[in-house]
From TrEMBL:
This is Flotillin-like protein FloA. It is a single-pass membrane protein. Signal peptide: none annotated. It is found in: Cell membrane; Membrane raft. The chain crosses the membrane at residues 28-45. The gene is floA. It comes from the Bacteria. GO terms for cellular component: membrane raft; plasma membrane. Found in functional membrane microdomains (FMM) that may be equivalent to eukaryotic membrane rafts FMMs are highly dynamic and increase in number as cells age. Flotillins are thought to be important factors in membrane fluidity.
């Protein structure tokens, strides 16, 4: 019975020690944080891990920050990172940045790394853009790469645009500056004009950053876009001219075929008319309008004419070709 009671007591004490964080309570008391044992039990009942609240509370107390366990517990229940918020508050205090717990918690709940933002406020970040191509007025493509030095703006971290917006705006400014240059050599001679023009446009408005400087890291020459466009236009004009010429040729061929058809039609009419001549002769002989001797004389004349034509063809070979034409 005594052994049974000892086992039961051991189980009860183990359960109490696991449910009530005695070691964490002792650590808080030793660090000077006034927290009751029943507060820790209440955290257990509210499904809050006491370690996630008490350890950041000890850290904040040692740094001289005035935060309460209720603030840290409510931020934990909202899904925030309590430890990162406390680290950010400590970093802001050391850097003499005015950052309240409410603002810091809002930034953390908005999905941004508040500690990184505070560090970026102290140590600015450099964003390097890819090569951005623009075309000067003389048609030469100029490629520029920029390095943007930005500092986090704590006041605009909630709802402010990110790094992608900064890169996009700077790229737009580079393209606009190169496009407004009369010659590409002006950009090569003075690349600082790009950064000065872009920086003066206030591209950081509405973003979570403050642009400190824009430096042109590299400038390169690309294609001769103007010449390429003129070449493509010339090719297009040539194709249009060829198409129109082909259209005119097709119309001429069609007209030629039409004329040949008309010639064949006229020849058919001639053949038809010639076929009526013997009938007319027969009718004239029958009616007595001409005599037989007249008919034979006409045939002799035709035979003589055909003989002369044959002789002419033999003496002048080009006549056949002319007749065919």
């Amino acid at each position: 019975m005594i052994i049974f009671l000892i086992v039961i007591a051991f189980i009860v004490i183990s359960f109490l020690l696991s449910f009530v964080p005695i070691g964490l309570w002792i650590s808080a008391i030793a660090a000077g944080v006034n927290v009751g044992i029943f507060s820790l039990v209440g955290m257990r009942l509210r499904r809050v891990k006491p370690k996630r609240v008490i350890e950041p509370m000890i850290k904040a107390h040692k740094a001289g920050l005035k935060v309460t366990t209720n603030q840290l517990e409510s931020h934990f229940l909202a899904g925030g990172n309590v430890d990162r918020v406390v680290d950010a508050l400590i970093a802001a205090q050391r850097a003499d940045i005015n950052l309240t717990f409410e603002r810091c918690a809002a930034i953390d709940l908005a999905g941004r790394d508040v500690l990184e933002a505070v560090q970026m406020s102290v140590n600015p970040k450099v964003i390097e853009t890819p090569f951005i191509a623009g075309v000067a007025m003389d048609g030469i493509e100029v490629k520029a790469k920029a390095r943007i030095t930005v500092r986090a703006n704590i006041e605009r971290l909630v709802g402010g645009a990110g790094e992608d917006t900064i890169v996009a705006r700077v790229g737009e400014g580079i393209v606009s500056t190169i496009g407004s240059s009369n010659k590409h050599t002006a950009v090569l001679e003075n690349p600082d004009s790009i950064s000065q023009t872009v920086l003066s446009k206030g591209l950081d408005s509405g973003t979570a950053f403050e642009i400190l400087s824009i430096d042109i890291a590299d400038v390169d020459i690309g294609k001769n876009i103007g010449a390429d466009l003129q070449t493509e236009q010339a090719v297009a004009d040539k194709n249009i001219a060829q198409a129109k010429a082909e259209e005119r040729r097709a119309m001429a061929v069609a007209q030629e075929q039409e004329m040949k058809a008309r010639v064949q039609e006229m020849r058919a009419k001639v053949v038809e008319a010639e076929s009526e001549v013997p009938l007319a002769f027969a009718q004239a002989l029958k009616s007595g309008n001409i005599g037989v001797s007249d008919y034979y004389n006409l045939k002799n004349v035709e035979a003589d004419t055909n003989m002369r034509d044959s002789i002419n063809k033999m003496t002048d070979p080009t006549r056949d070709t002319q007749d065919d034409e």
